[in-house]
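Chapter summary example.
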Amino acid sequence: MPAVRRLAAILAADVAGYSRLMGADEEGTHERLRAHLRELVDPKIGEHHGRIVKNTGDGMLAEFASVVDALRCAAEMQAGMTERNAAAPADQRIEFRIGIHQGDVVV
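The structure predicted for these 107 residues follows.
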């Protein structure tokens, strides 16, 4: 039986310089990242009808039915992180690299 496929937009995000941040302050970096995910990233994904399909230590994959929703989510995440990082010292800022891919996924 052939695999069932559907079109999806996948948002991939990870923290730039995560190893350096963890090396300098493991507990602080972990706590700051968890707060950003809980207070900004997870709600934005939900607001744009996405769902997280995989978490890694410093990143995630989220699936969206629409590439427009994924793009809007990414733009709002980046804008939110700019605001959240404004008062943080440059060497402690958590900054996400985000890419979006549209293609078939196997259901």
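To summarize the output: The mean pLDDT is 96.
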